[in-house]
Amino acid sequence: MYRADPMIYGFLIFWVVLGLAVFFVAMRGGPRGARGPLHTESKAGQRAVMVVVAVVFAFGLIVPALVLAFNGANKASVAVGGIHLNAEQQHGRVLFSESCAVCHTLAASNSEGHVGPNLDVRLGSQIPTEAGRKALVLSAIAEGRARGLGQMPALLYQGKDAESIADFVAAVAGH
Ligand code: HEC
After folding, report:
1. How many Å lie between the centroid of ligand 1 and the Cα of residue 77?
2. CA 24 and chain centroid, separation
3. CA of 3 to the centre of ligand 1 (A)
């Protein structure tokens, strides 16, 4: 599952401390201390202090939220073995789990299909180059397969979708 980055706590603590500092300075009548503690009389001064506190508080929420969102987005692009997936390959991962995973085992997609060959073995161990793996996947999708090991329908995908799947499988097979 998701592991919170210690940086987020750093941000939170930083902004909370800053917010409290501003609050106490305000309570003491401003940095100059001209007015006595707890006797802030100027309405404009009070309003300015409220604005500063509100801005600091908003930052305290927004910064961690952005960090969380950014980390979440990053995580979607990380596959097994620390491989970084681009947007195309992430799309391919979704399509693979929808239509290929029922028949094929592929560790990176957590699939355990036994109708067709295990792709970690067939591609990862037997085809040394990523380009070679991609070409084989594309040909399997385009032509289908019926070479005595079972039936794989042709043209489950075409065009960019087929490319995305082939990119994804070629990058992760065997990892
Ligand atoms: C209905 C089950 C089924 C589905 C769905 C399926 N396959 Fe297959 N696939 C097979 C079978 C069975 C074989 C082996 C056929 C043979 O060689 O006789 C195979 C073979 C393959 C091969 C190896 C080809 C080779 O020449 O060694 C690849 C790569 C492959 N499939 C990729 C995919 C991808 C990608 C998808 C999703 C678009 C997919 N398969 C969907 C059953 C399936």
Report:
1. 25
2. 39
3. 36
CATH of 80-172, one of 1.10.760.10, 1.10.340.30, 3.30.70.330, 3.30.300.90: 1.10.760.10
- pTM beyond cutoff 0.70: no
Cα separation, 67 vs 63, whole angstroms: 6
Single-letter amino acid, residue 171: A
Angle at 156 between CA 152 and CA 159, to 5 degrees: 130
Distance CA 161, CA 175 (A): 22
103-108: long-range pairs with CB below 8 Å, 24+: 103/152, 106/169, 106/172, 106/173, 107/80, 107/172, 107/175, 108/79, 108/80, 108/83, 108/168, 108/172, 108/173, 108/175
Closest CA to 164 of 156, 152, 154: 156
Q: Ligand 1: does its nearest atom lie under 6 Å from the Cβ of 100? A: yes
pLDDT digits 0-9 by tens, 12-64? 888 889 888 888 877 776 666 555 555 556 888 888 888 888 888 888 888 88
For the chain, what percent of residues have pLDDT higher than 90? 51
For the Cβ of 165 lying below 6 angstroms from any atom of ligand 1, the answer is yes
